[in-house]
């Protein structure tokens, strides 16, 4: 798996301590895990960025994008969603839990075990990180050596997607239309996308004025199970699109192995 340099900075919660307010934060890198065909392992690093000792517990949860997007929803146990393939037993991780003092970090290792008859395509689940503050005076040692806490306070959770690709996958994105619109928060681009991709994408939309000036819009999540997507994406307030004689919307890949910051498709914006 290619190393990615970004850091995911997450505020898990806020603990009010009179007279000051302390923010809880955990650093996670990378912010999503993508394991390509024939790759067997990956890793994730978390770091306690607070001045409190925190307990981290890990498990899987299933989140699928609606067939018509853009919402990614949490599925109940046993619930299915069209086109969605969870990771199931093809991946394992360790450790299952850890306690980190302020500034300490921990690597989480993922190991993929692909059955010989595993069907081609993409499988994904979300790696759930549960965080709780620990009273250090109450930390105890289990018989197996794992450190756990006796007193835990203020729970907060976050999850990141983990993708495993099997065999060849492809990108088939059709940007059907892009038009100017107004929403409550300001000017936006209304996009309609058709999707025949067999792997998930994180897409960077760029608004291009007169084939020169550009503005980067909010990232679009397009999971493999979503066959279409319609959404309104805010335009930065400092982008003077009104003076553009030509206005286009480009969709670029981000961390995709085939489209690393390369254009997937573009279309003229209608007014």
Write down the overall mean pLDDT.
Answer: 87
Main beta sheet, described?
5 strands, antiparallel
Question: What is the helix tally?
Answer: 0
Do you know the CATH architecture of the largest domain?
Answer: Sandwich
Can you give me a brief rundown of this structure?
The protein is built from no helices and 22 strands. With 271 residues, it is an all-beta fold. The protein starts with 7 loop residues before the first strand and ends with a strand.
How would you characterize this protein structure?
A 5-stranded antiparallel beta sheet has the order 1-2-4-10-8, with no helix packed on it. A 5-stranded mixed beta sheet has the order 3-14-11-5-9, with no helix packed on it. Strands 17, 18, 19, 21 and 22 form a 5-stranded antiparallel beta sheet that branches. The chain has 2 domains: 8-166, Immunoglobulins (Immunoglobulin-like), CATH 2.60.40.10; 173-268, Immunoglobulin-like. The protein contains no helices and 22 strands. It starts with 7 loop residues before the first strand and ends with a strand. The protein has strands at 8-17, 20-29, 33-35, 41-48, 54-61, 63-65, 72-74, 91-94, 97-100, 105-112, 121-134, 139-141, 147-149, 152-166, 173-183, 186-195, 201-209, 213-216, 220-222, 228-234, 247-253, 263-268. Mean pLDDT is 87; it is low at 2-6, 10-23, 141-145 and 148-154. With 271 residues, it is mostly beta strands.
Topology (SSEs and partners):
Blueprint: E1 8-17, E2 20-29, E3 33-35, E4 41-48, E5 54-61, E6 63-65, E7 72-74, E8 91-94, E9 97-100, E10 105-112, E11 121-134, E12 139-141, E13 147-149, E14 152-166, E15 173-183, E16 186-195, E17 201-209, E18 213-216, E19 220-222, E20 228-234, E21 247-253, E22 263-268
Parallel strand pairs: 3-14
Antiparallel strand pairs: 1-2, 2-4, 4-10, 5-9, 5-11, 6-7, 8-10, 11-14, 12-13, 15-16, 16-20, 17-18, 17-19, 17-21, 21-22
């Amino acid at each position: 798996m290619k190393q990615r340099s970004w850091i995911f900075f997450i505020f898990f919660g806020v603990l009010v301590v009179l007279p000051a307010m302390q923010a809880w934060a955990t650093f996670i890198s990378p912010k999503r895990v993508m394991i390509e065909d024939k790759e067997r392992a990956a890793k994730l690093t978390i770091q306690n960025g607070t001045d409190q000792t925190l307990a981290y517990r890990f498990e899987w949860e299933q989140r699928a994008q609606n067939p018509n997007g853009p919402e990614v929803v949490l599925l109940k146990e046993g619930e299915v969603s069209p086109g969605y393939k969870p990771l199931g037993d093809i991946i394992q991780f360790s450790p299952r839990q850890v306690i980190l003092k302020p500034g300490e970090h921990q690597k989480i290792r993922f190991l993929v075990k692909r059955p010989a008859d595993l069907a081609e395509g993409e499988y994904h689940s979300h790696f759930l990180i549960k965080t709780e503050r620990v009273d250090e005076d109450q930390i105890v040692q289990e018989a197996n050596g794992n450190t756990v806490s006796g007193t835990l306070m203020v729970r907060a959770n976050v999850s990141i997607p983990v993708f495993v690709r099997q065999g060849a996958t492809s990108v088939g994105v059709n940007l059907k239309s892009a038009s100017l619109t107004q929403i409550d928060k300001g000017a936006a681009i209304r996009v309609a996308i058709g999707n025949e991709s067999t792997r998930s994408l994180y897409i960077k939309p760029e608004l291009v004025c007169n084939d020169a000036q550009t503005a980067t819009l909010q990232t679009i999540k397009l999971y493999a199970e979503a066959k279409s997507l319609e959404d309104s994406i805010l335009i930065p307030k400092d982008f003077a699109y009104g003076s553009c004689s030509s206005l286009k919307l480009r969709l670029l890949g981000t961390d995709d192995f085939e489209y690393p910051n390369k254009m997937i498709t573009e279309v003229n914006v209608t007014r």
